[in-house]
From TrEMBL:
Residues 36-208 form the Metallo-beta-lactamase domain. This is MBL fold metallo-hydrolase. InterPro entries: LACTB2_WH, Metallo-B-lactamas, RibonucZ/Hydroxyglut_hydro, Sec-metab_biosynth-thioest, WH-like_DNA-bd_sf. It comes from Sphingobium naphthae.
Length: 292
């Protein structure tokens, strides 16, 4: 999680070329959780795919429509169904006739603190992609890479022609991903990170933040960060005995925006659930936790 930022003068609504096959359009939804906003990617030249169409915002939809122009849209792809990612799929499909494709639908009452990231209960894909399935257009191929963790239905999309990965919220250059139970799963997240570490992608295009070059180095660093956090939690419990999550957050997340404390608490909970599953920590009465 990162510190507050000034979103002034950011290029929302503009189609910015990142490579011969990839353009980015930034949605006007900056926040402490979305950073500068959700980034929608347009892939292809003659006919295109749209990845993470973003929020159902009139200005953003107009910007996407202008960036697509008269080119046919092969598919509208969603990495996951948090509502800063998928709601624009429906109106964009209505405008372009393109099928909504990608992650499975997921409706869940998330008891986490992120109102901006509630699930899009209206998401109804025309086609759900399983791991390894592909969508193709002239000069490009996108392959689904299952990466559960941030959400259970999270997919990344690999662009074979450029060894690029659209990493959604699973890996972002500006911040670590929030893992918020009950759907967010730290055990699944770490397995997915290991899977990405073993791939040969040369660049990541995240849904929030700048492109990530040398992505394996970042993935290794993020995995190391999670292991360090796990160690902090265990040492805290060893020192203090039965403890509450807010007390852990207050010590371990000094210096971050206090508005992010509730989300930090969700990540601590995700770590504790993972530690419980491995026999290293256990829940105690009154919402407290202890070492096992």
């Amino acid at each position: 999680m990162a510190s507050p930022f000034d979103p002034a003068d950011l290029p929302t609504g503009m189609a910015i070329a990142l490579s011969p096959l990839v353009h980015r359009v930034l949605a006007p939804n900056p926040s402490p959780f979305t950073y500068t906003g959700t980034q929608t990617y347009i892939v292809g030249e003659e006919a295109v795919a749209v990845i993470d169409p973003g929020p159902d915002d009139a200005d953003h939809l107009a910007a996407l429509t202008a960036a697509i122009g008269d080119r046919p849209v092969v598919a509208i792809l969603c990495t996951h169904t948090h509502r800063d990612h998928s709601p624009a799929a429906r109106p964009l499909s209505a405008r372009t006739g393109a099928p909504v494709t990608g992650c499975a639908p997921l409706t869940l009452d998330d008891d986490g603190p992120r109102a901006d990231a509630a699930f899009d209960a209206d998401y109804r894909p025309d086609r759900v992609l399983s791991d390894g399935e592909q969508v193709e257009g002239p000069g490009w191929t996108l392959e689904a890479v299952a990466t559960p963790g941030h959400t259970s239905n999270h997919l990344c999309f690999a662009l074979r022609q450029e060894k690029a990965l659209f990493s959604g919220d699973h890996v972002m250059g500006w911040s670590t991903s929030v893992i918020s139970p009950p759907d967010g799963d730290m055990t699944a997240y770490m397995r997915s990170m290991q899977r990405l570490l073993e791939r040969d992608d040369v660049i990541y295009y995240p849904a929030h933040g700048d492109p990530v070059d040398n992505p394996q180095r970042l993935v290794r660093g993020m995995m190391g960060h999670r292991k360090q956090r796990e160690g902090q939690i265990l040492r805290f419990l060893e020192r203090h005995g039965e403890s509450a999550i807010p007390d852990m957050v207050a010590e371990m997340y000094k210096g971050i925006d206090p508005r992010l404390f509730p989300a930090a608490g969700r990540s601590v909970l995700a770590h504790l659930i993972d530690l419980d599953g491995r026999g290293l920590a256990a829940p105690a009465e009154g919402g407290l936790w202890r070492t096992a």
